[in-house]
Amino acid sequence: MSDDQSQPLNSDNSLLDQRPESSGAPLKIPRFDQEDDWGDEDEKEPKESIISDGVMNRNPRIQRYLVAIEYIGTRFSGAQQQSNCRTVVGVLEDAFHKFIGQPVSIFCSSRTDAGVHALSNVCHVDVERISKRKPDEVLPPHEPTVVIRAVNHFLQKNEGDITVIDVRSVAADFHARYKAQERTYFYRLLSGPECVSTFEKGRAWHIPEELDLSAMQKACKVLVGRHDFSSFRASGCQVVNLLLLISRFSLSIVIVKSHFLLIRDLEELNVAEVDSTPPFPSVVGWGPQNIEASQGFGIPRRHRCFVVTARARSFLYHQVYSPTTLLKSVGTGDITVPDVERILKARTVTAASAMAPACGLYLARVKYDLP
User: Fold this and answer.
1) Model pTM?
2) Which has the closest alpha carbon to 70: 150, 176, 194, 163?
3) Cα–Cα distance for residue pair 35/235, rounded to 1 Å
4) Would the N or C end of the chain have less CB density within 10 A of its end CB?
């Protein structure tokens, strides 16, 4: 947290967002929609959040776990808990409830949108182990391997589109959102005129045109670094009179009278061509470049597959969608690299084109400094 501001607001996003996942902060100001939560790895939560989040409760029965999950986002209305909607947190809380016999509250490091997938999203949960026969008896916490097996048992009975991939016991004050040091997203694009494979439905953005990889890589270089990303926020973003000064290691938010900037460090943005999936070794010569017309009957033509990688400490809402849309437009020749520079410098949400669909976006990794 920067010390040069006279009255900085805590980067706890519950101060900016009234959504139900936030953990009990009293201050309410206009909502700031976003893809990820802001925070500094050295910043501590306000005492109100700590108490409401159970950190101050030193009950020896309670163990905090850091839980890594993967999921297919197609049938989820986003990650965070919502009433009357199927969400990642809702399904995970239900599985934990069935495992330990009591309700729990789960806090995600990144709140993905409806339709967005995760190779590894991370959350934390407090679990109190109670003996069914002797309620007053203090039992040791469950081993992480037990948690993985038990929770996955119940998750597989609920559509099976979410899986716990790792669990670690952590200190009572470890917070999945505040302690996250870095987030990495992948975005998959399939290029080619053929219909998308049934196995790829809802897992990538299909681009019928051919994509110019070299031009896309040049456009990436324009966007990497510390910039005002106002052109890349969501059109529905309700930020008013907020100045956000964000660097790799610090974040300070101060209310100002008539000026706002949205400055972020985008540490990595690149695009690469990879093998499309699933690559079955028993099918020799897959791919249009290896198939002769007389020998290729019944063998599907595979699309060219491109993956955009975006890595930063945190992202504005739609900050991954918008650059991907621009890179696609550069790849198809609809716009040029100088056009990307112009859009970035415009600093207005109307400068960028329509958003890429959610189905191609994957939260790939959330990085922590763990012992």
Assistant:
1) 0.75
2) 163
3) 13
4) C
